[in-house]
């Protein structure tokens, strides 16, 4: 029986957080480090990851910053190999990297559609495949947390979010989450997703400036997500507290998807 005090403890765990150099990924990485995990931070711009790595080290944990395009199989393999060389094992993967392209559906360029799909869906698949392979071989289970979006659960009016490829990609991430949860349950690899509503970050800045009032009218709590409000949920899905939770999509959206 795990004592309540230890339910959220991540001591001795190693977590890879894609897109961990800024925004929500940075918040999740720091949250995991605060709970005792060592972290691998990867994104295309390694400088951002290096900065967050310094913050992690200041918390007394180890950090490995790496450059990686999650849509490139070779890059993904290198991240997993270097993580294993440095730490010996991987317990948690957070597929947080994401890209978007805002334009009316009828104008969506095909190359932008492919880019969004490659980063969000192919990237999540490649990372899950490479880390899942290690977790299965190791035989000690694991956790995969996919960062989806409310845009993958419900349709969005264009005056809220006009990003058809992004919404489709997040729906695919939710299906992938549920399918891998069932397929890998026999290895005790728990696969869950978080569906955030709107949080101010680099990705959402323009949308919030342009559509913020409309978004807030559709949000029962009447505000955007704030710093720190995703961290606890991400810790929950990586910790002993959620050991009987898999295939779940946890909305963190101020109630926007229930009204
Ligand atoms: N901010 C929001 O309101 C919101 C809402 C719902 C979901 N999300 C999701 O949260 C996640 C984090 O987004 P954010 O809001 O922090 O925005 P952000 O733009 O600050 O972060 C996105 C991260 O993904 C990384 N990235 C992009 N393409 C990549 C690639 N090909 N390979 C590796 N890394 C890549 C970027 O370097 C960056 O670190 C995304 O998946 C996003 O879709 C955000
Ligand atoms: O997923 C969400 O709810 C977002 O906030 C997405 C981004 O802000 C949007 O797609 C940017 O173009």
From TrEMBL:
A GO molecular function held by the record: 2-dehydro-3-deoxy-D-gluconate 5-dehydrogenase activity
Highest taxon in the source lineage: Bacteria
PROSITE patterns to which the protein is assigned, alphabetical: ADH_SHORT (PS00061)
Organism per entry: Kyrpidia spormannii
Span of domain Ketoreductase: 13-183
Gene: kduD
NCBIfam families listed in its UniProt record: PRK07231.1, PRK08213.1
InterPro entries, A to Z: KR_dom, NAD(P)-bd_dom_sf, Sc_DH/Rdtase_CS, SDR_fam
SUPFAM superfamilies referenced in this protein's UniProt entry, alphabetically: NAD(P)-binding Rossmann-fold domains
EC class: oxidoreductase
Keywords from the UniProt entry: Oxidoreductase
Name of the protein in question: 2-dehydro-3-deoxy-D-gluconate 5-dehydrogenase
Similarity comment: family membership: Belongs to the short-chain dehydrogenases/reductases (SDR) family.
Known EC number: 1.1.1.127
BP term (GO), one: bile acid metabolic process
